[in-house]
Amino acid sequence: MITIENLYFTYPNGKEILHGIDWEIEEGEFIAIMGENGGGKTTLVKHLNGLLKPTHGKVLIDGIDTKKSSVASLSRKVGLVFQNPEHQLFCETAKDEILFSLKNFGFNEKIAKKRIKKILEILNLTRYSDISPFMLSGGERKRLALASVLAWDPKYIILDEPTIGQDHDQKSKLGNFIKQLNSQGKTVIIVTHDVEFVAETKPKIVLLSRGKIIATGSCTDILTDKKILDEASLLMPQISILINMLSNLRVEQKIVDVFEAKKILEKFLR
Amino acid sequence: MRLFDGFKFTKIKTPIHLLDPRSKLVLLCVIFILSILFSNLLLFSVIFIVQIPMILLAKSFKRWIFSLRGGAFFALLIFLANFITGSTLTFSLTMMFRFLVLISSFSFFFMTTSPDDLGLALEEMHIPYALCFTFTTAVRLVPTMAIEAQTIMDAQRSRGLELDKGNLFKRIRNYMPILIPLIVLAIKRSIELAEALESRAFDVSKKRVSYIILKLRSIDYCVIIIALFFLILGFYSYFFITLPNLECNIRLAEILPWKLW
What we know:
By secondary structure, chain A is α/β, with parallel strands linked by helices. In chain A, 39% of the residues lie in helices and 22% in strands.
């Protein structure tokens, strides 16, 4: 369990980004942190593996205070995948890229080889295993960055803006993959503005605005609440906007799922 | 990373910030020439101390300390390298102070001169526009790259990289996962920048006019004249007078109770 108690964070330049965050993340949860640019989403997740330490308050990972632990030992539990894969890929081959993280965490060669093979297969990257990461396309690089984190099998997985630069097909594959990870018992946290992606994958939502959590709740509740979405500079998913526009038909308003919307609309069209 | 703060321009209104970039450039060049021309500890200490009131006037003292702190490691290295290899104490200290004087004067210059003004100043000096632009872009990109380096460091630490682990050589090697992405990104950015510039017809018109025109005020003339006066004085004394110096000709081999080599 991850516990955040009264977290305040100020950057060395004096800018306070997070103002009093209280939050508990249970094991096995699937959460999306959403909110406007500069609202503190990335700053918040950087606290979860100890890259940033709270100015006030505490962050506990399975009872361990992040202030008293190193980034390396926390990362063993909390895998953080950064937004831009170009900030981390540097090896000569994709295989080596994954091996780098495994070596850092002290895996022996035999196990490392097995894991590399498996993770490349899962993320559909096997044919690139001996190719330079710099030769891959944007989406493939993003998947490789993800693979290099998933390889050491962290208990909590955090993905910062996983959908940026992915085409529609890759996005839905990624969504399925995340759901699969979650169903295997992993705690998955995604940071995103992509309401459509969230509406499809249906995580629990935590809305962050100006360094404070302004709402938490189910995907359907939050994504159909126009007032609260406005506060965090987000739009409803398109399907909810459509249903919203049809409010004079007196249909159920809390819809984020395309299939549910289809059922409702079919009734009227018959 | 705070080292870069000591070379970053901040927009504040102080008498130093309001000086014409050309007069500050002249001042910088004079300090640079003097510190290359001489190797005199007394002179270097004087130049170093004279800078302090100017930096206080520019309200940049704290950031100046950052740049010095960043340079302290290299300064110490220079001192030790000289002293251990058998130079006198004075000589080693002189070399160290030369480095510190250069660092602090460059930090002073870049903290108080905006890259735009600097570009304008270079243009007024009839340096080709493409060159001026390259120079100002380089200056401008330093803070961006510092932020990028920090992000890369965070990303690699999240993958279990421990920067301060192992012996000296291991530690240097630990920085490879940070340097490679940083260099690759810099090259990529420069290609993108070049394409963007070309698509906006960069450097096509030969006669560029500028919206802002720099004007030297009387205070600027004062600064330039004083700087040039010291430069001439410097050259004169270099050829005709021996400047007094702090002498302390102790060598490491002499103070050690055993023989080193």
